[in-house]
Fold this protein.
Amino acid sequence: MVSMPVQAGGTLIPAGFAARLLQKAQGRGLDTALETSGHGDWEGLQNVSRHLNRIYFDIKSMDPDRHRRHTGFSNRLILENFKRLCSAFPEIPIRVRTPVVPGFNDSMEEIKAILDFINEAAGSPDYELLSYHGFGEPKYRQLGKEYPCATLQPLPESRMSVLREAVLSR
């Protein structure tokens, strides 16, 4: 599988270029995938999605105020794009992922709210909880920026197990 790390809104690779590249990759028999936060314009996401075999879509929070406080922007566009993707491309498998960040979205209520949303929008897509990690810290350092999560530690595995069990039981 060749995974293309693009953002449909053009953050990493412009959507038009990414769509052409993915189309060529599929034409050569390569499996294509997109990892996205869904925060980009619909037209770009739609064009890229036409050439995908699967999508990994991160949903971090259902609470718009909490999402804005912790990420700097609203989740409205993300949630709208997810619903539109599910409707426009029902044949593409989507795996929804939630990076579980201590103090942000690590409550049972938050995880259940995300589950309810994705089940309503997509039936029952694959859903995965990812433990928080600080792998992004070196990138911030290279950019001369302060890493905003420097003091965070991953949740204990026992807590992640409880949250994962709740996901499996729904």
The chain has one domain: 2-168. The first helix runs from residue 15 to 27.
